[in-house]
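Milestone M4 deliverable, item 7.
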Amino acid sequence: MANMLGAYGDWAAGLPADPPRLSFRRPEFTDLNAWRRQARARYREALLQPATGGVPAATVLSHSEHEGVSIEHVSWQLPYGPATEAVFLKPAGANGKLPGVLALHDHGGNKYFGLRKITRTGTQHPMMARHQNHYYEGMAWANELARRGYGVLVHDTFTFASRRMRAGDLPAVIKAGLVEQDPESDKEIEAYNRFASNHEHLIAKSLFCAGLTWPGVFCAEDQRALDYLCSRPDIDASRVGCGGLSGGGLRTVYLTGADPRIQCAVPVGMMTTWRDYLLNKCHTHTWMIYIPSLARDLDYPEILGLAAPVPVLVLNNRQDQLFTMPEMERADRILAEVYRKAKASDRYKANFHDGPHKFDRAMQAEAFAWFDKWLKR
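Output delivered:
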């Protein structure tokens, strides 16, 4: 069968054992907690995360209110790169401690934007209105979740928006005439996104040379955002979840697998297997996914399974162009088996919706109900 490696495909796909070496599905693992300690330690080792400091010292840039949502625009500085911008959303007039959600923005082939993809804080850039119409059925889902009684933090991550690469910091040999004279114009944004797409393989190579992985950088930065969210006096740190579509779904998987503070997770449009990435769909994905050698120990869905019995809802689209249906279904079976063995079948659910890659209103309603079930207690 045709695949990304041609005649080498079957050989490469067959190299990892099934189940892999540290899969909870293997008969030798009978103690959930002991298995998790071992498997999570291996996962964290493979991530090769950078040092990102402790709880970020956030500076409040502005306060505002929009359509019933209180908006706090904040910024913090990590040990490297430009400052991270974020917004914290909660119901206007809310008092006391709220359950929290770290809302993780998507990739969408658009690195100029980050948190603005899933929020609405006032006047909206026309490109973000189109983005939300395309992927979210016109909704700023982070705002919608805040209105339901949550404290929601949305931050820019590595290489996106406030954390993006700047033209002035790059050598002429790679920036191909990229300028930043009118950066909010559609023309410059489109040019930046074309550059950023072509730049990804160079970033990945450079990170490998530094002894890092792109997922490790993502996860470390998301953990610092989680530190900040949990440190807020208006958040109940024992009731914190995360979720997101596509690149945000990827980050949900990786963060939930790494950090026990996540008590509920909803990855959307980002669940399949390493085999699917290897044989069928690596051409539809970025360098942000890959963790060298981890496939020998855990299949991709089993990273999310490291959190069992933490409640997990996986939302898929049947016609999602980024994955194959057989491997999405196989990922569902893998996670169902992990949760069944963990005696937590009621805490795992996967649903398949009709349509292409998206997080539409029906899927949002399902996600919000899942957060309500497990975080509003």
